[in-house]
Amino acid sequence: MQKNRLGHHLLSLARHYSRVAPPPPAYADPVIRVSNNVAYLGSPKQGPKPRQLLSLPPFPGHHLPGKNSATGRVTAISWLKYYFDEISDSAIQSHFNKGLVEIESSNPNAADSFIERDGQMKSLRKIKHNEVMEVGARVWVPVSIAETRVSKRFDCIPSGTLHPNADEIDYLRRLVKYKDYAILVLNKPPKLPVKVCLPVHNSMDALAAAALSYDYDEGPKLVHRLDRESSGLLLMGRTKESINHLHWLFNDINPAKSSCKAWNDACDAKFQRYWALVIGTPKENEGLIRSPLSKILLHDGKTERVILAQNVGLEPSQEAVTEYRVLGPMINGCSWVELRPLTSRKHQLRVHCAEALGTPIVGDYKYGWFVHRKWKQMPRVDIEQRTGKPYKLRRPEGLDVQKGSVLSKVPLLHLHCRELVLPNIAKFLPLLSNNAETLSPGLSGKPDLLRFVASMPKHMKISWNLMSSYLV
């Protein structure tokens, strides 16, 4: 009997101590949240994050090119459309309709919100699209206005099979900038691989064969490549004859030329021009890089890397030549550079920028990882090249632009094939196939050269806008 009482007493003690609740957090009252039918005890959720606002430069007051030249009045929506010329008019109008566009106000009583600038609190009021801009007025808009609205599902098409659906086919066809019976020219987005490999199913050549064949039995074929992270103009051949001539055209060691002088002159005029944002600035504003490249394997025996050849004769190397030109002053420790490759080597532009010039491309962690770490710690003050006065790139507190721009925590590669000039294959193909020396009368009126220009991807557009917007 006494043992039973002792057992009940110990059991009651155990039950008593098993129900002791943990102490509540010291900084806030505990909150019970339910997720997937499971209750959690923890601190309250954080409040809304600060708004991500972007400041346009003060309104200069002069007439905008092609805008309101007769009346001399510039409205707020005209000023935004002029500044964000690559953004659709409907996207800008929707920001006005939702009351997201604000202007600095000198009347704090009429202010809708406040923001800190130059250490002072500035009052902001909402502005209508038809209000007339005054000289020196500063407009504030959300960062989202600088981001093109592309669905996340199309950032990299998730096609495990080679049968894209109707939406994916429509998306791929919107990338096509030019099409004739011989070639296709596309503006490739970043993060979309070009050549198929074992772990990748949604490469450009595989998807193009399924979605860009149009009325042909077979899809187009690649004649040159772009890195997976880079973007820009990509050329594809549609027929066997055009593919062979384009391969010959992009071959660095061309065989004997044709007997047609117009074709030879058009081939000599062929070039590609890239835009890149690099960390630092080259010592010379323009120049020619002649640095042969070699491929090596790292210690794991699998990873391949391209380096500058040491010219000791022990490893195979390939000649690599690149023309470069600096496009403007250094801003926030970065410079926009124009690159024109005269040879076609793997990672040629990335290695030449990182190792030959000492200015790696923003987002190129393979060849510029250590410079990226140093660049994060660089001061954000520099000298304006034209006036010699200091300027500063301001990054407001709480602003952390994602989408891979220059202010992101992990920016994407800022390398874009901007311009492509090549012979008009559709014009010369009948002549080359018949080994003739003169063109037929029906083809002689067509241009000898085709020129294409591709707009930058969204992360490079944001970098361009942000770096110019915060110059003061």
Automatic annotation (TrEMBL):
Q: Which CDD domains match?
A: PseudoU_synth_RluA_like (cd02869)
Query: May I ask which residue range the UniProt record assigns to the signal sequence?
Result: none
Query: Start and end of every Pseudouridine synthase RsuA/RluA-like domain?
Result: 183-354
Give one Pfam family, short name only. Answer: PseudoU_synth_2
**Which one GO biological process term can you cite for this protein?**
enzyme-directed rRNA pseudouridine synthesis
**Matching InterPro entries, A to Z?**
PsdUridine_synth_cat_dom_sf, PsdUridine_synth_RsuA/RluA, RluA_PseudoU_synthase
A GO molecular function annotation here is: pseudouridine synthase activity
Top-rank taxon, per record: Eukaryota
What this protein is called in its record is: Pseudouridine synthase RsuA/RluA-like domain-containing protein
Organism of provenance = Gossypium darwinii (Darwin's cotton)
